[in-house]
User: What shape does this take?
Amino acid sequence: MINLVLLGPPGSGKGTQARILMSRLGLAQLSTGDMLREAQASGSELGRQVSEIIARGDLVSDDIVIGLIAERVSDSSGAGFIFDGFPRTLAQADALGELLNRISHPLNAVVEIRVDADALVERISGRFTCGSCGEVYHKSNKPPAQEGVCDICGSSDMRHRDDDNETSLRQRLTEYYQKTSPLIGYYYAKGLLRDVDGLGEVESVAENIRKALRL
Ligand code: AMP
Assistant: This one.
């Protein structure tokens, strides 16, 4: 089993790279952002609870996201997990360590995807997602072959995230630098950190990750 964390600010390409690793290594992508958006779309109590928090760009409480991950990490029969957008706080990182110890498959590596703040704003303002299969696109860096149609599944249900606007993005970046970036030191001290240049084409970043992981 291989368990990886993708760490990086919003717009650094975690979701895109997680999907590449998922198809290349057969790992399961666990994105707390996707889980929370699914809860919102289904109109569940949890979805209602988190809606305003996500729209503002704040972090959802540790208890909620740890609960979502705990439900998925009890099974150790698969090839492994890619944690995308989790952990985002030190408390979440400690909880993840405990959950993985319980299944006797600790983290193998934490990939820090580095992208400077100007590039993040450009990436986020141009991105959209297929509402059907979740493939991520960008209006200039990664447009679909046919405008408005997903290359992967053919759906024309392209969506722009509500929290991909300038005000929420500024708050998401503040949350990242205040609460999530301390995890860089946390994982460095455990000998797990691999930093990767996240600028450039999707394929070249994927290659940087492959080299950093020696996989
Ligand atoms: P993402 O899709 O990873 O950018 O997440 C979108 C939003 O969901 C974030 O801005 C947070 O409001 C919330 N969220 C996702 N993952 C977490 C997490 N691990 N801890 C707290 N909030 C989260």
